[in-house]
Write a structure and sequence with these properties.
alpha/beta, Rossmann fold, 4-stranded antiparallel β-sheet, binds adenosine-5'-diphosphate, binds magnesium ion
């Protein structure tokens, strides 16, 4: 391991998609999916990335796994710059250390492979031990994700398992090669509500015993509250707020974060939600206005918001926010449903 306290250090990372040009007509503007983001993740901790659909969460995850090359900027992994000049061997080594957990278990697993074959494949790719060593490793991993007795699962096919069991297999497959880093993109959104908590509990336990550094991508703030020390809120490819999860969820300083929190449905009819109405028409990432990206939906927008883009600035306790008026509108203890729930759900 490197010397740095951080496993991931992201510096002004961008991913722009360039649409195909039509033969006639104007050049189309690039789609700024990730538009200059910076954050770091301490070793052994988890960070949540939240925001509405299309704000750039998945693209960020793919950049961190080098499934995409950045348009601009770069990041460091364990102190080492992950640039386009990596050798094939360096990239292969990185591919073992940094794993993705898929959202959809039916896409992640080959339907013709038994569970044993599915877990063996990444071990063979990374030339892990002898056949006997691999078998022990697979059995140990299935025990860790509590698919026991292991013998009764080894030779089953995906269609013979439930959604929750399959997602445990997907987790085991990501972790069987002993990675340092895991990106879980909406890890339980395809699962029945009744089995989500079980899978999340397991993820929390297994990632912590293995000492993993984890990114959870989710639009579900209660999941992030349950699993993540730090939270990043994204809006149209930019970070609008980041910091310790408690600070973000209980005393948010950006109006967009407040709106996301007030949209969390309440299970308790006595809890009165302070609804914050934002205009629902979301600007698209290929037509971003000057000034603050949130201007057209923000109930507090004033003249400066239409002219000057607010920078992400530190307030206190490592709490960062990008809003010209955050001091006036944010930072108060914010009564919301997330305050009253301790567990996931
Ligand atoms: N491969 C791609 N080509 C072109 N545009 C893309 C591609 N992937 C994502 N986008 C666009 O980038 C933006 C961010 O997408 P994404 O990262 O998937 O958002 P999220 O995961 O937050 O829903 C969206 O506007 C999406 O349409
Ligand atoms: Mg996504």
């Amino acid at each position: 391991m490197g010397q740095s306290d951080f496993l991931i250090e992201v510096e002004d990372l961008k991913k722009w998609f360039y649409p195909k040009q039509s033969l006639i007509g104007r050049r189309k503007a690039p789609l700024r999916a990730v538009d200059g983001i910076s954050f770091s993740i301490k070793k052994g901790t988890s960070i949540g990335i939240a925001g509405e659909s299309g704000c750039g969460k998945t693209t960020t995850g793919k950049l961190l796994l080098k499934l995409y090359d950045a348009t601009e900027g770069s990041f460091k992994f364990d102190g080492v710059e992950m640039n386009s000049g990596m050798t094939k061997q360096e990239l292969k080594d990185f591919r073992r250390k940094a794993q993705l957990m898929f959202q959809n278990p039916y896409e992640a697993l080959n339907p013709r492979y038994t569970i044993y074959q599915s877990l063996q494949e990444p071990l063979i790719i990374h030339k892990y031990g002898t056949k006997e060593v691999r078998r022990k490793k697979i059995i140990n991993m299935l025990e860790k994700v509590r698919l026991t007795p292991v013998e009764s699962y080894l030779h089953k096919f995906p269609h013979q398992l439930s959604g929750g069991q399959l997602q445990r297999v997907v987790l085991a497959r990501s972790l069987v090669v002993d990675p340092l880093f895991l990106v879980a993109d909406e890890p339980v959104s395809m699962l029945d509500v009744s089995v989500r908590a079980g899978v999340l509990n397991l993820m929390r336990e297994v990632t912590s015993t293995m000492g993993l550094t984890t990114v959870y991508i989710s639009h579900d703030l209660s999941l992030i509250k349950y699993l993540c020390e730090e939270t990043v809120i994204m809006y149209l490819g930019s970070i609008v707020e980041k910091g310790p999860t408690d600070k973000i969820l209980f005393s948010p300083m950006h109006p967009y974060t407040m709106a996301l929190i007030s949209a969390v449905p309440s299970s308790d009819p006595d809890v009165e939600l302070k609804e914050l109405n934002i205009n629902n028409s979301i600007t698209s990432a290929d037509n971003i206005p000057d000034g603050c990206k949130f201007q057209d939906r923000c109930p507090y927008a004033q003249e400066i918001c239409f002219k000057q883009e607010p920078l992400l600035q530190k307030t206190k306790n490592d709490h960062f926010v990008a809003c010209h008026f955050s001091e006036e509108i944010g930072g108060k203890q914010y009564e919301n449903r997330l305050c009253s729930t301790r567990s996931y759900g």
